[in-house]
Amino acid sequence: MITKNKRKEKKGVPLKKEKGRKGSKMLKQTVSKDLGEKKQAKVKEKTGKAKKVEEADLLYTQGLELVSFGRYEEALDSFEKAIKLKSNFAEAWYNKSLVLGILERPNEAVKAFEKAMALKPELCDNEDMDKSLN
């Protein structure tokens, strides 16, 4: 009588050899180690992103301070660095557009403003726009 395992062997399907307890334990340890390394990599990635966001926020705040002192070129540099670290930073785009306007660079100011509005349309409501135009 041919058993099920022998039929598979005859059809050319290789049979997996069962591992003893040591083999399965080693396999579990290896899988566990791989999963642990993947988790650590994800944590490092998240930590790296968090650091970039934090640094972007600091650069943004620095830019606001520089604007208050009338140091517009330096403020622009801070806003641009913040945007490099956090490209969807609508407030930085918006303030960059304002500084570019002050520096009489209207084409760049419009592009930065459009980017800010695309990211966060509620950033500048109609009342603010009306006040700035009058």
Q: What's the total helix number? A: 6
- What does the average pLDDT come to? 78
Instruction: Report the CATH architecture.
Output: Alpha Horseshoe
Shape: elongated
Helix vs. strand class: mainly alpha
Please report the first level of CATH classification, the CATH class: Mainly Alpha
Radius of gyration: 29 Å
How would you classify the quaternary structure?
A: single chain
Low-confidence stretches: none
User: How can the largest sheet be summarized?
Assistant: none
CATH superfamily: Tetratricopeptide repeat domain
The percent range for helix content is: over 70%
Give the strand tally.
0
Q: Secondary-structure element order, as H and E? A: HHHHHH
CATH topology: Serine Threonine Protein Phosphatase 5, Tetratricopeptide repeat
| Percent strand | under 5%
What's the domain count? 1
